[in-house]
Fold this sequence. Notes:
Oligomer: single chain
Order of helices and strands: HHHHHHH
Amino acid sequence: xxxxxxxGGAPIDGALPRxxxxxxxxxxxxxxxxSWMILxxxxxxxxxxxxxxxxxxxxxxxxxxxxxxxxxxxxxxxxYTLMRKGHIRTDMFYEKWSVRxxxxxxxxxxxxxxxxxxxxxxLVSWDFFQASWDRQERMVTxxxxxxxxxxxxxxxxxxxxxxxxxxxxxxKSCIAARRGVWI
Length: 183
């Protein structure tokens, strides 16, 4: 990722833009790593469908495996989605604003809504995971009773990744508000 240029032509560089690019690299890496989780999820689905319909021998584990992997896949990919601007936005207003206004609104929203909500969710989800870990909780509704804590661990990890990416997006918003250009 290269440094963006200010409308006057000078590249925007410095400690904060470099930090934003490094945090973007974490989201990019985590998104790519998490995307590989689709393979075991699809494999377990294909196995289950084949066993159930071709051999009349449904598995006891494939649904639970798919359920847990899809939930983890969804949560852990959220920082990458934020980096790629894939989350919902009210574009009918936003796209008409100047870059400076977009940056100001985004920065304010990150400070007022994003960071407080995610910090609260991080604390709650960590406690949720910790209780599951301490009890070695198992999914009792399933005959094979898999451990649940790995699934619950994805919540605080995903939240931490989102917070890191939120710092990057906040930095970019502040630069946009100040300089009138997105990096």
